[in-house]
Amino acid sequence: MFAARHLRPGSHAVVGALRRRGRDVWPLHRRGADLGFVVAMDRTMPSVAAAKRRWDRSEPVFLPGILDDAPEFHERAIDASLRMFDRLRRGGRFLDEVERRVGDDPDLRYAGSTKDRSDPREVERVFVDAEPGGRKEAEDVWAKLAWIANDESDASLRIRFSAGKEQLEEWMRSTDLTASWVDRFAQRMFPECAAVLRCEPLRQMLDAMIARPHRLSERIVYNNAPDGGAVFHHDAEPGQIGVIFSQLEGHTAWLSLPKERLAALVVRAGARRTRRAAMEALDAGSDERLWRLLNRDAAFCAQLAARGALFVLRAGDSIALPSQSIDRVAWHSVFALGSRASLAHSYGLFPRRPDYPMAADPRHG
Asked: What is the tens place of the pLDDT at every residue in 102-117?
């Protein structure tokens, strides 16, 4: 059973009939590209063994309803975050929002704010130092507000938490102690982090799939707006073994499959002659024809859906995306669904070393 069904553009009569029968159907639109419609289908939770098999094959692991009633339990915090994003979208200062949320935190000290003029998507970056008990344990910890796309038609925003010089990718070399303060900064800014971090069924599933100590770091809070989302990409970064994305409010649609399977479909579509050439072209990201096939071609979208690569996430759902290497990784594309901006959290999965304080993980608090 497929997680979601795809309908071609123009299928309005079918869409109307499905909606009259109470089915959830949304248009798959993103920045002017009409890719048809998506119908939510199977919402069966995989067994732990099945999830582990998918993870090991670099397949996305769809976990419908795994957060249970956590989004409802954290409704006030989620609503506050949605209102914050609305203010930011109207031109509010990110620094003011950070001050409002953690200005009286005893451990975090404001260290400055900047804007990278060379990055048209960046809005504002706020730095803090971690000084518990007056002793500095981490510096250059930051939260960055940015538009998801460099396109004025897409009002989607995101806030990423990290540390060090981003251009030099210093976060990849950070100690687990620094990472723990980045994580605590995110948790204190967004209390609804607990909906994910304290969800024992999700944590047990991750334990089984990853099968080694790990931490949930390099956190991103997403506010996907109507007609927005992210084009096809991957999250294979040195040291990162995957990503867990959790929907807390609203809906998103996902196209996701392993890189090798995506490359095979690129060959089938005639965009490359061999799978290896297709994989190299995916990595290069410089072919306009291939980019349009991946992100603006409704027929190609239908092929992906027919192979079980289309998913609909609603509040309470998660999807795990493995990234064992540059080639053993789940590529993915995201579409905002519905008439209002949604809220979701995405956490990178990393091996946990002994210097990551257990106190930084609410699961152990």
From this structure: 999 999 999 999 999 8
> Could you tell me which residues are beta bridge partners of residue 129?
109
Rounded to whole angstroms, the Cα distance separating 192 from 189 reads 9
- 94 part of a folded domain: yes
Q: Which residues contact 301 (CB under 8 A, 6 or more apart)?
A: 6, 28, 35, 36, 255, 310
Q: Is residue 301 part of a domain?
A: yes
Residues 149-203: tens digit of each pLDDT: 999 899 999 999 999 876 656 666 678 899 999 999 999 999 999 999 999 999 9
CATH number at residue 290: 2.60.120
Residue 32 is assigned to a structural domain of this protein = no
Q: If you average pLDDT over every residue of the chain, what do you get?
A: 95
Within a domain: residue 108? Answer: yes
Question: How many structural domains is the chain composed of?
Answer: 1
| Region for residue 300 given its phi and psi (left: phi exceeds 0; alpha: psi -120 to 50; beta: otherwise) | alpha
